[in-house]
Design brief:
single chain; TIM Barrel; 2 domains; nine-stranded parallel beta sheet; 46% helix
Length: 313
């Protein structure tokens, strides 16, 4: 079976600059999803989100825009807008666990309301042109919530369910529960993809053995922390650390250079790079010490010195 790997969206991290450079420097990831796009109170899309999804800014990658909404009017508006840009598929976010989102019945906050989801899809699906996939958690407070939703989703031509088997209350703590996906596979005839806690070769191999019918595997935080993860999974072995450091240096140099030109002032660029290093540091021994070095850098010169020390260049 041909496997497909995708990079999960992460707000503030996986913008078009990051996605394009990731595709250039690392192998194996075939699909990328945007951080969610939403309508503001004045029914406009943020300029930064528009810029992020423009086809001319994503020419080298297979990109699927993700939307977040809880009513058919916004869904149709966003779908029509994306179709006008040439996108043939969109992804509906029913997975975001953050309270500022879920308290508004958005993201995973919508999962406990299958009748509302049904009402939205009944109105939306006949009217829009792009195909619809859904990224979803196992529930908001109860991991059985997804099981109660599956009969509703089965009535619609959903291209794929990307299941992250945690409840929203967990955020990203504790362990994902693959048993939920096992139950979903028995109850749902459509395509299912897996997302959650794929952190190394062994974990992936165990999940692939558990779910031989799944061919799409989405990885988020672990792939940002170790951009070589998919390559290592496909190779069946870890890549030599010296090779990884050399290639990561090339990636980081381009990433830093672009943001250094784009952002206004050293404060902005340093804050941006600290966001990345919160994840990058996890691939290094003594990751806490690595991240502390980055956090302590108060000038661009200090930052460059810290990175050189970490990468031993």
């Amino acid at each position: 079976m041909d496997l497909t790997f995708s990079l999960a969206p992460l707000q503030g991290i996986t913008d078009f600059t990051f996605r394009n450079l990731f595709k250039k420097h690392f192998k194996g990831v075939m699909k990328f999803y945007t951080p969610f796009i939403r309508l503001q109170n004045d029914r406009t899309i943020k300029k930064s989100q528009i810029f992020d999804i423009l086809p001319e800014n994503n020419t080298e990658i297979h990109l699927i825009p993700q939307i977040i909404c809880n009513n058919s009017r916004d869904f149709i508006y966003l779908a029509d807008y994306l179709n006008g840009l040439g996108y043939q598929e969109l992804n509906w976010n029913l997975g975001c666990p953050y309270p500022m989102v879920t308290n508004r019945q958005l993201g995973s906050g919508l999962i406990p309301f299958p009748d509302k989801i049904k009402e939205i899809l009944e109105e939306v699906m006949p009217q829009i042109k792009p195909g619809v996939s859904i990224k979803i958690r196992s529930g908001y407070e109860d991991e059985n919530e997804i099981l109660r939703l599956l009969p509703v989703l089965s009535h619609f031509s959903i291209s794929e369910l990307i299941i992250h088997p945690r409840i929203a209350r967990q955020m990203y703590k504790g362990l994902a529960n693959p048993i939920v996906v096992e139950k979903c596979l028995k109850l749902y005839a459509g395509n299912i993809a897996y997302n959650g806690d794929i952190k190394d070769i062994e974990t992936f191999n165990n999940l692939e053995q558990q779910f031989p019918k799944i061919n799409h595997w989405m990885i988020g935080r672990a792939l940002i922390s170790n951009p070589f993860l998919v390559e290592e999974i496909l190779l069946g072995r870890k890549i030599d650390q010296s090779v990884k450091l050399e290639r990561f240096l090339g990636f980081h140099s381009e990433l830093f250079g672009i943001y250094n030109n784009q952002l206004d002032g050293p404060g902005h660029i340093l804050n941006k790079m600290r966001q990345f290093w919160e994840y990058f540091s996890l691939s290094f021994e003594e990751s806490n010490k690595v991240y502390k070095k980055i956090k302590k850098a108060k000038t661009i010169e200090n930052y460059r010195s810290a990175v050189n020390e970490i990468l031993k260049q």
